[in-house]
Amino acid sequence: MLLPANVFAISPKEIMAKSEAAFYYQGRDFKARMIMKLISAGGQERTRELTMLRKNYGPPGGNQKYFIYFFQPADVKDMTFMVYKYPDRDSDRWLFIPALNMVRRIAAQDKRSSFVGSDFSYEDVSGRNVNDDTHSLVREEKLGARDCYVVKSTPKAGDVEYSYKLSWVDKADFLPMKEEYYDRRGELYKVFTADEVKNVKGFPTITKRTMKNIQSGHRTEVSFTKADYNIGLPDNIFSERFLKQPPRRWID
Amino acid sequence: MKKGAIRESLTGFSVNHPKLVIAIVLLITVGFMTQFPKMRTDTDPKNMLPATSDVRVWNDKVEKTFGLYKDTIVLGIVNGRGILNTGTLGRIRNITDAILRMKGVAARDVSSFTTIDNVSVDGGMLKVGPLMTDVPKTDAGMSALRRDLFANPLFINRIISKDGKTAAIYVPLEEGANGKQVADRIREIVKKEDGGEKYYIAGDPVARDTFGAEMFKLMGVFSPIAGMVMLVVAFLMFRSLFLSFSIMVPAMVIIIWSLGFIIGLGYPIHIMSSMSPVFLMAIATDSIHIFNEFYFRYRERQDKNAAILDTMKAVGVPLIYTDVATAVGFGSLMLANIIPVRVFGLGVGFGTLALLLMSFTLVPAILTFVNTEKLRRVSEREDAGSGRTGRLLRGLAGLGARKPKAVVAFGLILFAFAVAGTSRIVVNNNLIEWFKYHSGIRTADRVLNRSLGGTSLGYMVGIANEDDFIKTPEAMRYIEGLQRYLERLPVVGKTTSVADYVKRINLVLHNDDPKFDTIPDSKETIGQYLFLFSMSAKPSDLDNMVDYPFRRANIWVQLKTWDAQAMRDVIRAAGEYKKAHPIAMEFKPAGIAYFNLVWNDDVLWDMLKGFIAALVIVFIILAFNFRSFKWALIGYVPLLFTILLIYGVVGFMKKDFDMPISVLSTLSLGMAIDFAIHFVSRFKRRLAEVAGEGNPEKEQIVDSLLWTAARPGKGIMRNAVLFASAFSVMLFAPLTPYITVGAFIVSMMMLSSLLTIIYLPALITLLRGWLFKGGPK
User: Fold this and answer.
1) CATH classification of B72-202, choosing from 3.30.870.10, 1.20.1080.10, 3.30.70.1320, 3.20.20.70?
2) Which residue among A33, B515, B628, B632 is buried most deeply as judged by most CB within 10 Å?
């Protein structure tokens, strides 16, 4: 009885770790075909269509490999992109450029830069190490019909463009329903929303999402047209050979 | 109703109920004053033209299509020993960090060493990320940064000068942010950095908002000083504090009415209307003819009220015509396309009509309060014949009347000189040169234009007929060729386009092999390169250069001068290139540099329109006033001659014929014609008295001319001197348009009054046979 009552409650860091697991590490592997719409403030649209393969190597929060195949825009068809993600150091990236039949390694110094011109950063696509931020529980509130934790995550290092992030994490499935990014002036500048959640093979999955840059008015909408877990992705998919010749059965 | 009945009854009422009239005027004045708290300024050159004008609609569309910022501030950092050292780089990092935290700054698109993205190749590996994440701590790190910087043509002359001594940070502003406030905060930040670097802040928004702040200061400081100068000069003329104040009171009243009117209608104060108090003050000197005549009349009548009524009868008609002519001159500005010019014309035109009302109400009412004892003493000295000024004026008029041929011949020589000068006039507006040479803003602009690509920005937008055309090698090569062609112009410092990105990626993917510093041969390759580029840069970097369907491409053309003419060269060169290299693309200019060119040309057309309108209307007024076309023509001469002489000097001095000058040209008609109206009408009245209805003798004409020169002529000189003295204050203003206006008006007043006194007598004497055919009418 010497311990405070809330010792049995979940800590903000645990919330975020669980959220990371639910959002980025679900299943042993994962495949999704998605359409990404880049919409400018003036209403112009660019479309990217791609299939993303992901395989976990270790527990949630551990290493992962990603394989991305582009269908659209038409002139980048057959372009592929591969990422080996390590939580504690910069990831390795490879890009296959079909027009040159060339694979290039890319040293990425900036996890926060835009993913294929969208409002999502590389980190938004593949997750951010929970240990890179300090987390605090701001409040608990309902977002729509969902009970959520509202967690404030403040980056420990100053190498990111935002000063903190607020996440609305669903208490039931730990998926982030909404995120607000505040810039260094403390002004809201990016908002993530989970627009549709579907159950895929028993895993709650965000199948429609939007990232909107409040300040520029630009937004990116992503919707999954197919999604599947535990499909038995072989390890050799994530290799330079398959970057050049992606196997149809895995990417379609 | 008898002619002039309203006028006389107004004056009569005012003389009989002076206190009531003054109270009513005061009440209305307070009413207009209640509008003052709503005052705001607008110095955005964009607002020179209506939001619905073609060029603005097009520019807005271009900005939207390419996600461009309306305003960007440039911070230049100069270190004579080079930028690439840990101290300077550390300061650039700190300053950038501080700028990113500022309100009003579009932080996501600030370009600096730490925020600009670079794609390079190192040992076969593509490197993607900010040019500099932190200050290099080792020599190797420093040389790597140097290599990165100078290997990427996108950086050279943009964020670093070729000689490595100047760096720049580009700070785009959110819509509605105040450029001066952001610039002031940047100044505070750089003040805290104590290295040997020099900092320069440039960019259109700084200039504009600084100009706005200066404008308010000028209105607040220079208008009262101009008022004081007029007061002192008036006192020296009349030796009566009461009379001097009496001239100033109507001036103050109409200034308040006019400003209240403009503000009440919801207009902001622009550059032109900020000068309106001085204009109105000067125009109000017209009432000097009332005081001038009142002196003489009082000496003759010795009855104050009767003298007032007599005075108003004598000067009333010329006053109406002169004020209406002035109001028409200003009113003709309302035909202008340039909004600030229109508002200015409206405000001053309204003020002039208000002055006309004051002349028949407030001025007579005030005159009733004059101390008669003092008046008698002062008016003793007013003698047209014996006064020193009077003798001088008689002498001048005598020169014209007695040696008309010599005077006219000399005039023709001057005329030839003026025409030669006028033909050399260059129409140009340069907003940066509205600041003085050594002002912070102009110095910054000069320094940055010397070392970097150029602070003024124009766009050439290439428009194809089909989507994805921009991705073709044909379009890319065309864009690249056009860029090289434009860069040959001396005014162009740097151009940037999507072709530069494609070439950059091509080079980097081939390990910096210079053979690949080219546009690749297939559309697919280009498409993939652009996709790769979008993975390695800010989304806005690509958006700024090409639209989403790849149908339009935007070439950024940085200009080293804000001369409106510079963009004309660019457009002409683009046309030449298109002629030599036909392609299924249309190239249209846009951007602030293009906008400046458009309104610059509009200014010229406005001026011509307004000038011709004023010319015609003033002529009609003159003809109506003199009941004669011949006399109207004669009355025109001093006026046109004055303007031509000033143009001649402007041409020889190589001074740009800019907006203030062109506006003044239109105005000067309405203002300077006053002298001819007063002179000719009073001369004809006098001659009729002397010569009766018959054909006048030459001696009678000469005598009347000399009388006119000495008596109403004294009023003319006083008017001119007072008018000029008010504007002479502007010669000391810190902004060049005010100096231009001051110099123009001072010379116009002095020239047109002198020409009226000397040249009119010469012409009248010379052409008397033609003029007096059938009597002195």
Assistant:
1) 3.30.70.1320
2) B632
